[in-house]
TrEMBL record:
GO molecular function annotations of the record: oligopeptide transmembrane transporter activity
Upper taxonomic lineage: Eukaryota, Viridiplantae, Streptophyta, Embryophyta, Tracheophyta
Protein family according to the UniProt entry: Belongs to the YSL (TC 2.A.67.2) family.
Entry's localization field: Membrane
One Pfam family per UniProt: OPT
GO cellular component: membrane
Membrane topology: Multi-pass membrane protein
Organism this protein belongs to: Cocos nucifera (Coconut palm)
Keywords: Membrane, Transmembrane, Transmembrane helix, Transport
Name this polypeptide is given: Putative metal-nicotianamine transporter YSL12
Transmembrane segment boundaries: 49-71, 77-96, 117-139, 163-184, 282-303, 323-344, 398-421, 427-446, 520-541, 577-594, 614-636
Length: 701
C-alpha cells in the first residue's frame, strides 16, 4: 500500500516536470491551451455525466479492480494506472461515438470533460480496492492471518470476511471523506494554487487527447496497449498449463540457480511486475533489489542459523515467534520510521507554507493598492487560461449545506452502524475519529497538493496504535484498531483524491459538480465491485494470505502485526528482534535525512527505506522482475528516448492489465477445481538421479 503512494509520488513528479515543460512550450510558442478549445462549447455538468461515460466507467472499473486487487494481494506495490484509465476511456467512447456517427444517431460529441468524468469514476472505483484494505487492514482481521501468530488470535480479535458486512462497511465509511473538504475547494485550487501534480498530469493528458495531434498519438498508444495486453494475457494463460501448484511452472524456474531459488532470488516470468518496473522510477526498483539482497541474501540466512538459540526450532514457517517474526517486525520498523519522518516533513512544510502565505498577505506590496493609496498597476495580469478556468470552476457551486449536512449525517449513521459490524469498536472511538478526521484530511490534501504524497496509510497506522491500545487485547483491541484504521484511511484518502479530481476538472473545464457526482458514483461502484472481486479471490484460493503462496497478502500480516504491537507491546517479539527494530527504525530516519540534505545529484543514488522494506517480508523474486522492467525501459530510452516516453507507459499498462485481468478466468478455474495438466519442476542433478533410479526400480518391479 505504502509503495503505491511512493510510486505515484515519484512517477507523478517525473510526469509533472515533463508536462510543465510541454505546457509551457505550448503556451509560449503557440497559444494558450484554452484558446485551442475556445471555439468548442463547454457542456453543462449534467451533459458531462453521459450514459455512455458511466457504462464505459463501469466496465473499466471491473477490469481495474481485478488489477489492483491482484497487485494488493501479491506485493502491495500498485503503480499509478491513471494513464491506462484515461487511454482506455478515450478509446472505448471513441469506438462508441464512431459507431453512432456511422448510423447517423450521434447526438453529442465526445468531449474532454466527459473523458475526465470517466477517468475520475474509474480511479474512484478502483481506489476502493486499495483504501478498502483488502490487502491490508480488512484482510488482517481474518483467521487466516491471525493463525500465523499466537498472540491475539482469540475470537475477540478475529473477524472473517463475508460479502455482506464488507459491502456494508465500505458504504458506511467511503463517502464521508468526499464531504469533508468540499467547502475548501476554491481555497485549495484557486487561492493557494496548489499544484496537485497527479491531477495536473492527468488533465494535460486528457487535454492532449482532444487536440488533433493528440488524438493521433492516443490511437497509437491504445493500439500498443492492446497489443501488450493481449500478449500478457495469453502468456499468463500459457503458463497455467504447467502450474498445478505454487512449486511448479515458470514461476518456479531457478533462473539464477537452485541455491538462489531457495532464497527467493529468481525471475518468475511475471509480465505484470515487468510492467510495474517500467512504470516505477529506477531508484524505487534499485531500492527494492537492495532491500532483497540485504534481507534474503544476508540477514535471513544468518538469523536462520540461530534456530534453536534465538527462537525455537521446528516452528511453522508462518509463526511470528520464529524467523517470520524478524521478517514482519523489521519490515514494520522500516515502514514506521519512513512514515513518521515523512509525516513530520510534510506537516512542517504545510506549517511553513501557511506562515509564508500569512506573511505575504500581510505585506502591502501584495495588495492592489500602492503605498500612496493609488491603484497598483504592477499587479501581474491573469492569463487567458487561468481566467477561463476560474470562470468555469466557479460556475457550478456545491452548496456548503450539502457538504456540512452530508458529513454530519454520514457520521451519525457511522457512529450507530459501525459498532454493530465490529462490536469491539465502541461508538465513542468512531466519534473521536470523526472529530479529528477533517483536520487530518485537510493536512493530507494540502500536503498532497504540495508534494503529491498521500499519507493516508500513516494516519491509518496511527489510528491502529491509538485505538488498539485504548481498547486492549482482552476487549478485541486488534479488531478495534484495524477497523479504526479503515475509518481514518477512507476519510483522508478520498478527501485528497477528490481535490486531485477538482484540480483535473479545473484544468479541463469539467464542472466541480460533475466531478463530485462522478466521484460518488465511482465510489458506489467500488463499494460493490471491490468486495465481490476480493470474495472471488478468497473462495478460489484456499492459501490466500499464507507466506510462500501465490497471493501472500504481505500487508495484511504487517497491519495485524502493528495492531498486536499496539495492544500487547513488545513482549510478542522474538529474541533480539526489538534491537533490530530500533536499528532499522533509526536507519530509515537517517537515510531520509541524508537524502533530503545531500542535494539532488547525490540523493538520486540513495535507496528509499519504504521500498527496501517490501522484500523483507515477501522475498526477492519480484525485485528481479521489476529490475528487468527497468532494464528494458533504460535500453529503450538509450535507443529512442522520445518513443520510450510516448509508448513506455502504454506498454507497461498493457502488461499489467493483461496479467491482472487473467485473474478472473484463473479464479473461475480454481473455484471449479480445474487443475493444470502438467507440472514443470526443476531438481538438482543429485536429486534427479535418485528420482530416475526410483522410477526405474518401480517400473522393473
Amino acid at each position: 500500500m505504502e509503495m503505491e503512494e511512493m510510486n505515484q509520488m515519484s512517477r507523478r513528479r517525473k510526469s509533472r516536470r515533463k508536462d510543465t515543460m510541454e505546457e509551457g512550450r505550448e503556451e509560449g510558442e503557440t497559444m494558450p491551451i484554452e484558446k485551442v478549445f475556445a471555439g468548442k462549447q463547454v457542456p453543462t455538468w449534467r451533459e458531462q455525466l453521459t450514459f455512455r461515460a458511466l457504462v464505459v466507467a463501469a466496465f473499466l472499473s471491473v477490469m481495474f479492480n481485478f488489477i489492483v486487487m491482484k497487485l494488493s494481494l501479491t506485493t502491495g506495490i500498485i503503480p499509478s494506472l491513471n494513464i491506462a484509465a484515461g487511454l482506455l476511456g478515450f478509446f472505448f467512447v471513441k469506438l462508441w461515438t464512431k459507431a453512432l456517427e456511422m448510423t447517423g444517431c450521434l447526438r453529442q460529441p465526445f468531449t474532454r470533460q466527459e473523458n475526465t468524468v470517466i477517468q475520475t469514476c474509474v480511479v474512484a472505483s478502483s481506489g476502493i480496492a486499495f483504501s478498502g484494505g483488502f490487502g491490508s487492514y480488512l484482510f488482517g482481521m481474518s483467521g487466516r492471518i491471525a493463525k500465523q501468530a499466537t498472540e491475539a488470535n482469540d475470537a475477540q480479535n478475529i473477524k472473517d470476511p463475508t460479502l455482506g458486512w464488507m459491502i456494508g462497511f465500505l458504504f458506511i465509511v467511503s463517502f464521508i471523506g468526499l464531504f469533508s473538504l468540499v467547502p475548501l475547494r476554491k481555497i485549495m485550487i484557486i487561492d493557494y494554487k496548489l499544484i496537485y501534480p497527479s491531477g495536473t498530469a492527468t488533465a494535460f493528458l486528457i487535454n492532449g487527447f482532444h487536440t488533433p495531434q493528440g488524438a493521433k498519438l492516443a490511437k497509437k498508444q491504445v493500439k500498443t496497449l492492446g497489443t501488450f495486453f493481449t500478449f500478457s494475457f495469453l502468456w499468463r494463460f500459457f503458463q497455467w498449463f504447467y502450474s498445478p501448484n505454487d512449486r511448479c511452472g515458470f514461476q518456479a524456474f531457478p533462473s539464477l540457480g537452485l541455491k538462489a531459488y531457495d532464497n527467493t532470488f529468481y525471475f518468475d516470468f511475471s509480465a505484470a511486475y515487468v510492467g510495474v518496473g517500467m512504470i516505477c522510477p529506477y531508484i524505487v526498483n534499485i531500492s527494492i533489489l537492495f532491500g532483497a539482497i540485504l534481507s534474503w541474501g544476508i540477514m535471513w540466512p544468518l538469523i536462520g542459523k540461530k534456530e534453536g538459540s534465538w527462537y525455537r526450532a521446528n516452528l511453522e514457517s508462518s509463526d511470528l515467534h520464529g524467523l517470520q517474526g524478524y521478517r514482519v517486525f523489521i519490515a514494520i520498523a522500516l515502514i514506521l520510521g519512513d512514515g513518521l519522518y515523512n509525516f513530520i516533513k510534510v506537516l512542517s512544510r504545510i506549517i511553513f507554507s501557511f506562515i509564508s502565505t500569512a506573511q505575504s498577505k500581510g505585506s502591502r506590496s501584495t495588495l492592489p493598492i500602492s503605498d500612496d493609496d493609488r491603484p497598483n498597476t504592477t499587479t501581474p495580469p491573469i492569463s487567458f487560461n487561468d481566467r477561463r478556468r476560474t470562470e468555469f470552476f466557479m460556475k457550478d457551486q456545491i452548496p456548503n449545506v450539502v457538504a456540512f449536512g452530508g458529513y454530519v449525517a454520514i457520521a451519525a449513521i457511522s457512529i450507530v452502524s459501525l459498532p454493530r459490524i465490529f462490536h469491539q469498536l465502541k461508538w465513542y472511538y468512531v466519534l473521536i475519529a470523526y472529530i479529528f478526521a477533517p483536520v487530518l484530511a485537510f493536512c493530507n490534501a494540502y500536503g498532497c497538493g504540495l508534494t503529491d504524497w498521500s499519507l493516508a496509510s500513516a494516519y491509518g497506522k496511527l489510528a491502529i496504535l491509538i485505538i488498539g491500545a485504548w481498547a486492549g487485547a482482552s476487549n478485541g483491541g486488534v479488531i478495534a484498531g484495524l477497523a479504526a484504521c479503515g475509518v481514518m484511511m477512507s476519510i483522508v484518502s478520498t478527501a485528497s483524491d477528490l481535490m486531485q479530481d477538482f484540480k483535473t476538472g479545473y484544468l479541463t473545464l469539467a464542472s466541480p459538480r460533475s466531478m463530485f457526482v462522478s466521484q460518488i458514483i465511482g465510489t458506489a461502484m467500488g463499494c460493490v465491485i471491490a468486495p465481490c472481486v476480493f470474495w472471488l479471490f478468497y473462495i478460489a484460493f484456499g492459501d490466500l494470505g499464507m507466506p510462500g503462496s501465490e497471493y501472500p497478502a504481505p500487508y495484511a500480516s504487517i497491519y495485524r502485526g502493528i495492531a498486536i504491537l499496539g495492544v500487547d507491546g513488545f513482549s510478542s517479539l522474538p529474541k533480539h528482534c526489538l534491537t533490530f527494530c530500533y536499528i532499522f527504525f533509526a536507519a530509515a530516519v537517517v537515510v531520509n535525512l541524508v537524502r533530503d540534505f545531500s542535494g539532488k545529484k547525490v540523493a538520486r543514488f540513495i535507496p528509499l527505506p519504504m521500498a527496501m522494506a517490501i522484500p523483507f517480508y515477501i522475498g526477492a523474486y519480484f525485485a528481479i522482475d521489476m529490475c528487468v522492467g527497468s532494464l528494458i525501459l533504460f535500453l529503450w530510452e538509450m535507443k529512442n528516448k522520445a518513443q520510450a516516453d510516448a509508448f513506455g507507459p502504454a506498454v507497461a499498462s498493457g502488461l499489467i492489465c493483461g496479467d491482472g485481468i487473467y485473474t478472473l478466468p484463473q479464479s473461475v478455474l480454481a473455484v471449479a477445481k480445474v487443475k493444470a495438466p502438467i507440472c514443470m519442476k526443476f531438481l538438482s542433478r543429485q536429486i534427479n538421479d535418485k528420482v530416475d533410479a526410483f522410477l526405474i526400480g518401480a517400473n522393473l518391479s
